[in-house]
Amino acid sequence: MTTLRIRIPLTPLNKIIISIGIDSHQFRDYFDVVESTTAYPVVYGGEESMRSSMLVKPNKYAYPKVERARDLFNSYAGRVLVPDRIWWDTAHVIAIYSIEPVLSNIFYAVKLKVPGDVREYAEKALVLWLNTTWGILTVLFNREETRGRWTRLKMSQWRLLKVLDVTALDLGTLNKLAEVFGVYASKEPRRIPEQFDPPKPDTLRLGIDRDFIKVLIPSISSELLEKKLRELYRHVHTSLTQWIGG
User: Which of 111, 133, 109, 129 is CA-nearest to residue 120?
Assistant: First the structure.
């Protein structure tokens, strides 16, 4: 049996970030959510529609309750959003990328510690990684179950989570990963528990994982890679079925 080993540079998220936004309590303390347009766009709520693809737009606006809220928004708003809570039955993706810097009552807004000229590439590469099978499994392994398939990762847990070390990748690699992100950003994969169906895995799941690895190892055999991915999906499917049921 052929063994496929792939080395991916990982590091605790805390080592590559400037900040990780605000939590839901701070959001409620400092902002009101309004329908009218303000200078403070937000991603509000955790409905399935907000977790169906990697690319999102702000769906609400915030109005500062106190003067300090304006500085808070300017300091912590970001494009990379990672969830506080996940309902695995209806989540299609883990991390999302906003078209403009936002805060959220459900997601933590992550700001990376990278130069400005690579920021967009690095952000998209990180969101892509968190939505690969390996990124999803890392989140699952570190989950805190709150009620059945409701899980959460608190801010402190996200800081310790091992993620793709975007600071260890050169600009060319980051650019190519950002291009892969662009291919799949607006597409809607199946719900996560359905993506690993052994007879017929989600084509977007296969595509995200395959194209991510192909950037890191361009010479890898596509046939061998897909074979190994399908083997991995069988194990993931079995584990998810045992946990979720069905």
Answer: 111
179's enclosing H/E stretch is helix 171-184
pLDDT band of 2, cuts 50, 70, 90: low
Residue among 144, 134, 116, 119 nearest 208 (CA):
134
Backbone conformation region of residue 172, classed left if phi is above 0, alpha if psi is from -120 to 50, else beta:
alpha
Tokens representing 225 are 């890679």
For 152, the enclosing helix (H) or strand (E) is strand 150-152
Which two tokens mark 23? Answer: 């939590």
Residue of 157, 147, 155, 27 whose CA lies nearest to 86: 147
Euclidean distance between CA atoms 228 and 32, whole angstroms? 49
The residue behind tokens 């499994």 is 137
Question: Rounded CA gap, 36 and 187, in Å?
Answer: 29
pLDDT, one tens digit per residue, over 175-216 is 999 999 999 999 999 999 999 998 899 999 999 999 999 999
Q: Which residues contact 40 (CB under 8 A, 6 or more apart)?
A: 31, 61, 62, 63, 64, 70, 73, 77, 103
Domain positions in the chain: 10-244
Tokens of 42: 């937000």
Q: What is the distance of C-alpha 171 from the center of its chain?
A: 21
Residue-wise pLDDT tens digits, 15-63 = 999 999 999 999 999 999 998 999 999 999 988 988 999 999 999 999 9
